[in-house]
Amino acid sequence: MSGVFGPRKRVRSGLVAGLLCAAALTAGAAQAETFDVRVDQARVMKLPDKVATIVIGNPLIADAALQAGGLMVITGKGYGSTNMLALDRSGRVIMDTTVQVMSPKGGDLVTVYKGVERESYSCAPECAARITLGDSNGYFTNTMTQSSARTGGAQAAASAAPAPH
């Protein structure tokens, strides 16, 4: 009986030691948290020490830019959630966070439905067309075209301006 019991005890001891080791390794890594940001807005996040690389799971949902002083700016690009990993120089994960991108907040957003067609307006203090994900394709494209034309005109005017003396 002791011949059978001895090996089982060693296997059980090895299993317990392995589980304790795995628990210790898991405790060293940062726990997953959720970081909320609004679409088309940016938020600042303080990073743990020794971050060398940031990885965003789906860059269509969020974007990140490292800044000096251990700060990172996260910008909401599209609705939904994705993960963000922070790695040290050896490639070890030191932070694993879920980035949740939510709809715009505020009393100035007005959504108009025309049947199944949707248009968004920013009304502070007067209503003006707003480019919002989920708007009808025609409305979104027309608003985007106007916004791009305006930006292009402003850039052309700035480059044509005489240099200060």
Structure description:
With 165 residues, this protein is an alpha+beta fold. It has two domains: 29-102, Immunoglobulin-like (Sandwich), CATH 2.60.40; 109-153, no CATH class. Helices cover 31% and strands 37% of the residues. The chain is built from two helices and ten strands; from the N terminus they run αββββββββββα. The strands form three sheets. Strands 1-7-6-3 form a four-stranded mixed sheet, with no helix packed on it. Strands 2-5-4 form a three-stranded antiparallel sheet, with no helix packed on it. Strands 8-9-10 form a three-stranded antiparallel sheet. The longest helix is centred in the N-terminal third of the chain and has 27 residues, at 2-28.
This entry's quaternary arrangement is: single chain
Rg value = 26 Å
Number of domains: 2
Average residue pLDDT:
81
Order of helices and strands: HEEEEEEEEEEH
CATH fold description of the largest domain: Immunoglobulin-like
Poorly predicted runs are 1-31
Proper CATH architecture of the largest domain: Sandwich
Structure classification: alpha+beta
CATH class category label of the largest domain: Mainly Beta
Largest sheet: 4 strands, mixed
Strand residue content:
35-45%
Query: Count of DSSP E strands?
Result: 10
Amino-to-carboxy terminus distance: 98 Å
Q: What is the overall number of helices?
A: 2
| Percent range of helical residues | 25-40%
Order of strands, main sheet, comes to: 1-7-6-3
